[in-house]
């Protein structure tokens, strides 16, 4: 399976990312860019986007990019820094770029942006299995 086909297959099988309204904007080996709009049902008690929303978008970009190498890849450690609050109607984009690839491990940094403004920074470590995407 070609690298850019894998994230589309993953999204078609991912009920949660589909519910979030995530769309794939760009994809190639080692890189994936996704976007979504913040909805009212994603807001917390302070009328701002729940932190899990930007985390989920970044995590989806992370997973999609990690799998573009053709092997099933799963996260083993992730973290996020929330920099700016998000509001209903905001369109956010997360881009995952493989920073370093080892035999079994990949290290990613994912920027989440609202326009050109950095709103969150996500870091992740992925483990690549021996199983191929078909």
TrEMBL record:
Keyword Hydrolase listed: yes
GO MF: acyl-CoA hydrolase activity
InterPro entries the UniProt entry points to: Acyl-CoA_thioesterase_PaaI, HotDog_dom_sf, PAAI_dom, Thioestr_dom
Pfam entry (one): 4HBT
Keyword terms of this UniProt record: Hydrolase
Domain called Thioesterase: residue spans: 49-118
NCBIfam families: unchar_dom_1 (TIGR00369)
Listed name of the protein: Hotdog fold thioesterase
């Amino acid at each position: 399976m070609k690298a850019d086909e894998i994230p589309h297959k993953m999204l078609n099988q991912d009920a949660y990312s589909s519910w979030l309204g995530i769309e794939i904007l760009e994809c190639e080996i080692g890189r994936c860019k996704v976007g979504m709009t913040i909805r009212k049902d994603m807001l917390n008690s302070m009328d701002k986007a729940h932190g899990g929303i930007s985390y989920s978008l970044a995590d989806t970009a992370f997973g999609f990019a990690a799998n573009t190498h053709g092997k099933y890849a799963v996260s083993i450690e992730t973290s996020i820094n929330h920099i700016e609050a998000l509001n209903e109607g905001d369109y956010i984009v997360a881009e995952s770029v493989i920073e370093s690839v080892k035999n079994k491990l990949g290290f990613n940094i994912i920027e989440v942006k609202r326009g050109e403004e950095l709103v969150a920074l996500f870091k992740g470590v992925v483990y690549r299995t021996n199983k191929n995407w078909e």
